[in-house]
Amino acid sequence: MSLPSVRITAASTPLSDDSPAAARVATTTLAAELFDGRSARAWPVRLWLEHEQLVVHGAAGERRHAVRRVVWPEPMRHGQRQVHLPDGGVLVVRDAQAWDDWVATGHGQGLPRRGLVAAWIGNWPQVLLALIGLVAMLFAALRLWER
Amino acid sequence: MRLHAEEGAASGGLTGWPHSLFRKRQLEMGFTGSGSEYFRMSVVHLLLTLLSLTFYAPFAKARRLRYLLSNTAVDGHALSFHGDPWTMLRGHVLLMALMGLCVAAERISSAASGAALLSLLTVWPALWRAGLQFRLGNTRWRGLRLGFEGRLRDAYLAFAPMLVPLMLLVVVFRLCRVPLMAQAHRLFPDAGALADALQLMLALSWLLPVALLALLPWTLARLARYRHNGYRFADQAATLALRTSEVYRVGLHAAGLWLLIVVCGTGLLMLPRLGLSRLWPEVSLSLSLWLSWPLAVVAGIATVLAWACFSARCHNLFWGRTAADDLQCLSRLPVRPYMARVLRQGVLTLLTLGLYAPFAIVAQLRMRIESLSLTLDADPELWLARQQSQTPVGAKPFSAELLGVRLGL
């Protein structure tokens, strides 16, 4: 079984961070599993960002996806990181810490910044402000009800 | 399956393909979500939903499902949710329109309100099915979509035991109230007789919730069969072998537990009153007034425990009887610890005015998910996506169709 619609490039051998090809890589590489959406088989791959593209490199070849067309996972403390590719594939990174470190290096390559709501959820003081807002709304609603 | 059975018999109980690397094995389920993260998400979502007049609700739901599923792992591989919140917004607007119609009709007349309620009840099974199709169609494990293939007609049949009496009630009390009252006036021209007849009807109306409660296990059994028989994954079609009488047995057990707690609790609370009534009748009278609160608390505790018992046993029954060609589900949710946890968390939720609810939801979900496991008799790496889920090459999120409108719920 081979990966369908894979564009084989010159760098078709698995990359390591100290390989000669890694010299042109903009970000460090990250180990992940690729599910192509057609079979349940997991393909071990390495990822990196290059010219605002996500490069997915595995034994069967290389795929490139525009960074803005990829659905990136929201930063959460727990759970695996899942990247939804535009061709229906899913990339899974089990090591959440390694993913977060990798993302921190990738902002120069067009990786989207953390969304406003996701940033809000990740910040305890802002969540407490939201809670105070909710209580205030509750009291206002009760006042209106009494009238 | 037959081949597997023959092979299993030949190889001394071990099944699977003898020449392959795998054997029948158990896939454990795990949950890694955290209460504090879910709490923060819930607070922000609630505020944004209220500020946006509920239009943010589908976006909140999509994020919540993404979070819960990405923290649910089967054999170390997490599930993922791909639903498009904009498609879900369409479904949300449709629901809001239906609810709004009911509220507006309530202000016009009783008959209009009845017609609106009737239309909501009529479309409810179709909406529920569309929601199931949407959620499962956008859930993946190992990159493959899950699916739901229950037929629309069967959704109505599954809801029928509860839906038909409810519809009849709407027809009687809303749509035909005026003609029925006119008929009652003709039958009982005397005002006293009419009042007596109405009082009798009012007394009988207490039977309605009891009758609906009695129909609940039947409806739940039908709904569980409909839901589980419609689950699909790769070439695996799930089936649920369940008899309605088994759900009634679980229901009777829970009802018995409720009665036992209420009787014992009431007895314990009444003992001091019985003793005091002989010695100091005045003190005993004021004590009986004070006892109404503890009695309500006992009834509340009994209801929570009975519901937790019913829910845990149903969970074990429904999932433990679900199987597919190469998969068998197992559910070992410990009933008593689950009941204790639900009660403890219910008390904490009340004491914190609801703030503990997200922590309770995550803890209960963890217990339910981690009680499940799958026995696999195949190599999952060889499973392929089903034909219909492959058509959009998996690139577009799945959206259910309701009366030709593509929406998500």
Quick structural overview:
Chain A is α+β, with helices and mostly antiparallel strands and 147 residues long. Helices cover 27% and strands 23% of the residues of chain A. Chain A has a six-stranded antiparallel sheet.
Q: What's the count of strands of chain A? A: 6
Total DSSP E strands of chain B:
13
Which structural category do the helix and sheet elements of chain A fall into?
A: alpha+beta
Largest sheet of chain A: 6 strands, antiparallel
What's the rounded overall pLDDT mean of chain B?
A: 85
Structure description:
- The complex is a heterodimer of chains A (147) and B (409).
- In chain A, a hairpin with a 2-residue loop joins strand 2 and strand 3.
- Chain A is elongated, with a radius of gyration of 20 Å.
- Chain A is α+β, with helices and mostly antiparallel strands and 147 residues long.
- Chain A has 3 helices and 6 strands, in the order ββββββααα.
- Chain B is of the alpha+beta class and 409 residues long.
- Chain B has helices spanning 2-10, 35-51, 57-70, 85-108, 110-137, 152-175, 177-187, 191-204, 207-230, 244-279, 281-320, 335-351, 357-370, 387-390; strands spanning 25-31, 72-74, 77-81, 139-141, 144-148, 231-233, 236-237, 239-240, 322-323, 327-331, 372-376, 400-402, 405-407.
- In chain B, the strands form 3 sheets. In chain B, strands 7-6-5-4-3-2-1-11-10 form a 9-stranded antiparallel beta sheet. A two-stranded antiparallel ribbon of chain B has the order 8-9.
- Chain B is globular.
- Chain A binds chain B through residues 35-42, 71, 73-74, 76-80, 82, 84, 86-90, 92, 94, 117, 120-122, 124, 127, 130-131, 133-134, 137, and chain B through 32-34, 37, 39-41, 43-44, 46-48, 50, 63, 66-67, 70-71, 73, 76-78, 80, 82, 140-145, 234, 380-385, 390, 392-395.
